[in-house]
Structure formats: C-alpha cells, structure tokens
Design goal:
InterPro entries: Alpha/beta_knot_MTases (IPR029028), PUA-like_sf (IPR015947), RsmE (IPR006700), RsmE_MTase_dom (IPR046886), RsmE_PUA-like (IPR046887), tRNA_m1G_MTases_N (IPR029026). It comes from Streptomyces ossamyceticus. Its EC number is 2.1.1.193. One of its GO terms (molecular function) is methyltransferase activity. It is an enzyme of class 2 (transferase). By secondary structure, the chain is α/β, with parallel strands linked by helices. Helix content is 31%, strand content 24%. It contains 6 helices and 13 strands. It has a 7-stranded parallel beta sheet, with helices on both faces. Strands 1, 2, 3, 4, 5 and 6 form a 6-stranded mixed beta sheet that branches. Helix 2 runs parallel beside helix 3 and helix 2 runs parallel beside helix 6. The radius of gyration is 20 Å and the shape is elongated.
C-alpha cells in the first residue's frame, strides 16, 4: 500500500536538517487518527504538484509528527491533456459526491455551473459555503486517493463564461442524450485542454446547447442509459482518461 499523504502549505525544507514538523489539523490526523509510528513512510505535498517522501521519526503529543529523511522535493508535471469538467450544481450533498469521485479518478479541474434548470442555486453566503465545501472535498479526496496535484475547483460560472471556456478548449463537448456521436469514439487531442460540460438533472436547455454549440462544443452521448449529474462526470472522466492514455 502506498504511503499516506498529508498537505502542507509549503515544502521549503530547513537547510541541512532533512526534517519537517507536521502539526495543526494535519499533524493531529497523522498522530491521533492514522496513529502513525516511527519508521512508517509518509508523503508530504502542497497539493499543487510538489511532494516529498519521508519517514516518521517521532509522534509527539496528539498533533505533532516529526518526519525525517526528506532529502529532495519532487515536482509532478501537469498532466496532458488537461481535463476540466463543468459540473452543473446537483441537489443536496450530491455535489460533494461528484467532486469526490471526479477527484479520485483524476480530473484536473472542476467548474461549478448554475445551469438554468438547476434546482440548487448558489447565492450570497450560502454560495460561498457551498464552494468552500467543494474545495475542501477536493482536498480530502486528493489526499485519500494519494494525489499530489489536487483538482482546481473554480469560481461558479455563468453560461456565458462556460461558453468562453469551451471556445478556448482543444476539445469541447457537452454530455447530452440527444448527441449524435458517442464520446467513446470522439477524436481527442493528445495535449492541450479537454472541457466537458455535465448538465443538471433537468438537462441542458436548448438555449444553453445552442450557446455552447456556437462556442464549438458538440453534444455527445455517454452510453445507452442516462446517468445522474453527480455520476456522469466521473464516468465520462474515466473514459477520457483511458482513451487519452493517461490511464495506461
């Protein structure tokens, strides 16, 4: 089993020491929840691609882990092609479920989208809290799945902003049951940016489909069944990761 991952703000190691003290919430999780002991392997990361392997030297108190043998910091390159999923806002906590599973499979960026047919709408303080939950979920799922580059969860986008994102992409698609092409047979780039739109439970409206088509996005079907919005992005992401060779 791979070593557990813990997040730090910075991986600038003290000169010549090769040691790092993990404290605060992450230290508490390592000591009191994971119950790590001297000699066990750990990975420290900033969640932005920088990471280092180390060995537990000591667990002190309830929230302080001393890690040694941190001799070098590695940089994981940005994956290519980069995959962004524009996720319409699901009902209840299914948004966090979508973010969690998309993070686990390896999606690079997630953009919340308040589609016209979304029942859930992020407004004011409620919207800020919901966005914070999505970002916290991506962070925790990134740790759980042993990633060292967590997905970026962007600011909520309007339909016009989604269209602008699609227009800049090397491959732009919208999951929709009316699609005359299968995503499984779409011609995909080997580099650049893939942007895929996942609509709400009520579907992408005709006006939104037309707007996205003008931006160069084609409607694609995923399979014979219609998936819920909270699972469609994960299923489509796994397909894209396989077909682009990132899962190989």
């Amino acid at each position: 089993m791979t070593a557990p991952v813990f997040v730090v703000e910075s991986l600038e190691l003290p000169p010549g020491s090769g040691e790092f003290v993990l404290d605060g919430p992450e230290g508490r999780h390592a000591v009191s929840v994971k119950r790590l002991r001297p000699g066990e392997d750990v990975v420290l990361t900033d969640g932005r691609g920088r990471w280092a392997e180390g060995i537990v030297k000591a667990a002190e108190g309830k929230d302080r882990l001393v890690v040694m043998d941190l001799e070098s910091v590695h940089e994981e390159p940005v994956a290519r092609p980069r995959i962004t999923v524009v996720q319409a806002l699901p009902k209840g906590d299914r948004g966090e479920l979508a973010v969690e599973t998309m993070t686990e499979v390896g999606i690079d960026a997630i953009v919340p989208w308040a589609a016209s047919r979304c029942i859930t709408q992020w407004k004011g303080e409620r919207g800020l809290k919901a966005l914070a939950k999505w970002r916290a979920t991506a962070r925790e799922a990134g740790k759980q799945s042993r990633r060292v580059r967590f997905p970026e969860v962007g600011e909520p986008a309007t339909g016009k902003q989604v269209a602008e994102l699609l227009a800049r992409a090397d491959f732009a698609g919208v999951l929709h049951e009316s699609g005359d092409a299968a995503l499984a047979s779409a011609e995909l780039p080997s580099a650049g940016e893939i942007v895929l739109v996942v609509g709400p439970e009520g579907g992408v409206s005709p006006e939104e489909l037309a707007l996205f088509a003008q931006a160069g996005a084609r409607a694609y079907r995923l399979g014979p069944s219609v998936l819920r919005t909270s699972t469609a992005g994960t299923a489509a992401g796994a397909l894209l990761l396989t077909r682009t060779g990132r899962w190989g």
